[in-house]
Write a structure and sequence with these properties.
Largest interface: A-B, 91 and 74 residues
Distance between the termini of chain B: 46 Å
Number of strands of chain A: 0
Number of helices of chain B: 5
Number of strands of chain B: 0
Largest sheet of chain B: none
Number of domains of chain A: 1
Structural class of chain B: mainly alpha
Largest sheet of chain A: none
Number of helices of chain A: 22
Order of helices and strands of chain A: HHHHHHHHHHHHHHHHHHHHHH
Helix content of chain B: 55-70%
Structural class of chain A: mainly alpha
Strand content of chain B: under 5%
Oligomer: heterodimer
Chain lengths: ~425, ~200
Amino acid sequence: MTAGAIVLLALMGLLIAGIPIAFALGLIGYLGILGLRNMNAANSVLVTQIFDLAQTHTFTVLPLFILMGNLIARARISHDLYAASNAFLGHYRGGLAMATIAACGGFSAVSGSSMATASTMARVAMPPMRAHGYSDALAAGSICAGGTLGILIPPSVVLLIYGILTSTNIGQLFIAGIIPGTLGVLGYMAAIAVVTRLNPEAGPAGPRAAWPERLRLMRGVWPIVALFGLVLGGIYLGVFTPTEAAGIGAAGAFVFVLFRGTLTLRALIDIFAESARTSAMMIALLFGATLFNNYLDMLGFARDLASWLETVNLTPMQALLVMMGIYLVLGLFLESLSMMLLTIPIFFPVVQILGIDPVWFGILVVVAIEISLITPPVGLNVFILKIMVRNITLATIFRGIVPFFVADLIRLGLLLAFPTLVLVLPRLM
Amino acid sequence: MVRDPIPPGEPPGGPAPGAEDDGPGAPSGLIEDKPWMIRLERAYAVIPAAILFAMMMLTVVSVFLRYVMHAPISGAFEVMSYMMGLLVFTALILVAARSDHVRISLLDSVLPVWMRRSRAVLVNLMLAAVSGGLGWRLWRFGVRLDDWGERTQIYRLPTGLLARIMAVSMLICALLFVLMAVKVIVQRSALNRIET
């Protein structure tokens, strides 16, 4: 246990010093194994692990889903998504904010990053909400919160990485995210309804869009909706493996951008290269995390941690609450993927020993991670929004986030109390 | 007809910056805002881009053959895995060139510039040492695989070659990290392209 604590401190030190996470994890893993065994053992673990990992077939899902997201995101769909959502929701009180939630959810689903969503949608959604007399707090809150929905919608890179790190069935994880994701949308809509009921000034209703107008606006986005339906449906029905779904999704998105005609050949090559680059960066993190994992295994860290948990007499539920609390704190300075990579090697063995369902735990973790990105008094999404939007104070953004944050805590509580909400769909597969 | 409250087209001041434009071509890491550097990166980027395109096509074709022609390709997974190895390591060169590895930027705004510069030099030299060491071990591993005549099961793809391609890519990354360290020493503005 002491050795484990020292290792974690050393890791923290390297990370704070600004060493890339992949290298810090890998270096500690390598040096640790060197210390416990010898040079030959450490070298052979290093080389064989990295050589095998790079060729792991499960990983192929990663670049293909990232490609699908990048293709769609670069087709400039953010305005179309927002216009279409608004045509359907704009005439309700708080309707523009609801449309923002829907468009942010859609955009974060394709971009795979709630921070990219906050920075893009701030430009798209903030000006019209201001123009319609929405309060800055509600407008900013809905942008920050909406971006967190994408983590549960395939292609969710964070969920993929969780599946890869823990050898949990990726198709099941995706399907398990459907109900929690829907709950998230409903919770946010309810939060907006409550805010605008208490203070109708915060989000006045807009004009109602006629059906021909709605249909015209849907034309730009329906292929995307259909593509997501195909990917998720294919996985659910067992028609495709997740890798195949990712390949088909990417190819579908490719055809979509070709027909839209907005991209040159050079831009297409850029998108493919950028997707490869992002994937390589993530796989590098996985290299580091795996070496680090190996070392923790050799140390018997999980066993020690579990026996320590026994001495302090934590029930599985209490242990889960502690872990969720840790995520909310980590959102202070880490983005979602790094949070996942740094914590899962430590938490997951404990989860297994305590007999917690890995699919359920995975969903809880991604929900907690995204909540941490909007948690007052910190949260990275909030700072991004502050940079992107002029004359808005952090206090205003946080005030706007509170209702969504409360909705999220209720959702997390529901998922903790009723595992069935997460597990019912994957068990039907 | 109800007027669409969202102004059509781009907002004033050109396209919104952010996730939709943060593409290649923007200066970062070693890549400066100079035409020859951007061209060089683009020319190299064709390699990982082509591998990814091939992976996408192979997946589609294998699903098509299985469901429509009822003739699954045996060993598509083997080729995919091999290409995955190539993709990751050819693309890691791009990651290194752009100083794109994920790190925690907690101290970036707190430390004085001279400390941040010395730190950037030390960190990059360390990354060069790690990448170089890994490249060297991977090369030796590749040579050994070749000596044993290791090949993949179905298509007999040489695994030693793959290990040596990975090794070369790691050695190039090491070189790029050294260049980055030198750059930080000789050019003040280089720091801004690493600390993002």
